[in-house]
């Protein structure tokens, strides 16, 4: 190489960062230059040992299916063999190399898996069936790593995409990883496909032996007795704007956290956190909202605040105000994170249902959007085994009736709200329409739907100045 050429190469080397004028390779190029490709985590010997053990022993089949279901194998042919063995086991038929060969022949899959010779190879690959469960664990672990890599690849693709806002990408990435964690932690047969009734009866008897379960503690005794709210329930609190939906929801969560020390979460989509704090302090310290809001509390009111301050500080109540709103998927993502951290609340309140952001693209049918939100909240209650309370708006049709008492048919924009809910409580106050009405200061909690019990009306005292509702005769 001439001196001039060498100088040119050195200059190029300075530009590309490589030695002796060679361009520096990016990581992927280095791998290719090194002559190797990354292979997804796998252990074919463990996969063969699992299947060999299953072909040798019926007991090994029972052990293996508690660990893996069949989709965890890296080689598709191993999944095919596994599923054939499990099907035969489920029918009570013996599953050995000869019978499984016949089954795969009947299905037209024998040639695809390598013929009868490969089944005999699997049996010869394992000296004993005693360790099949251990090998199944190895297969499952490799599958988990592959799933983690797939999730990471999708998260990487989201980051490089230019068609989404950064905040949306972060939310989607977090949801992706938390969903992966949930996939790995489902427990034994959570859906009950293979759980015999005898086990369910045993669980039921154990629960009965624990004693009376009145349901979730509520500040309104008659409503608690009527609803008996338990984990998995979706309870809708519905009313016209300003009727008291937020007051009731915050009452429920405040009672749970402050009085009973149970963790509760209140998600507000229409109030700032400062407004919620104003209401919380007014209700707990019995200070008029006006004095709290205008920062004009007198000395006596400050003493009342001082008496409850420590109680509020220790209450396991979370007040959540998502900037820009929230979707059902984002609620699920946060609940999964809490579940992983062992911090799931005993109940969750959402204020309110119709302003949860829809997942569908803009322009979608509004009724379908609200239907999906209602179904989604019910699914969350079941998935995380907690009761969820959601406020809902009633339509103007309520005011068109002669007595202005709300009906289920007045639920705004969706019939699915009524369908998805385990209970629907409609709020009605006579003084909402006539301030001087003889029932001024009272609120009716109309249980219009109740899957777990009766319907009826629970009358309480509406203390608007304190932003709370109380049982009749309590703290007027």
From TrEMBL:
Stretches assigned to the SF4 helicase domain: 209-476
Biased composition (Low complexity): 1-12
SUPFAM superfamilies reported in the protein's UniProt record: N-terminal domain of DnaB helicase, P-loop containing nucleoside triphosphate hydrolases
EC number: 5.6.2.3
InterPro entries: DNA_heli_DnaB-like_N_sf, DNA_helicase_DnaB-like_C, DNA_helicase_DnaB-like_N, DNA_helicase_N/primase_C, P-loop_NTPase
Catalyzed chemical reaction(s): ATP + H2O = ADP + phosphate + H(+)
GO CC term, one of those recorded: cytosol
GO molecular function terms noted in the UniProt entry: 5'-3' DNA helicase activity; ATP binding; ATP hydrolysis activity; DNA binding
A Pfam family it matches: DnaB_C
Disordered, as annotated region: 1-22
Keywords assigned: ATP-binding, DNA replication, DNA-binding, Helicase, Hydrolase, Isomerase, Nucleotide-binding, Primosome
Record CDD domains: DnaB_C
Entry superkingdom: Bacteria
Biological process annotations from GO: DNA replication, synthesis of primer
Similarity field: Belongs to the helicase family. DnaB subfamily.
Name used for this protein in its record: Replicative DNA helicase DnaB
Source organism: Streptomyces jeddahensis
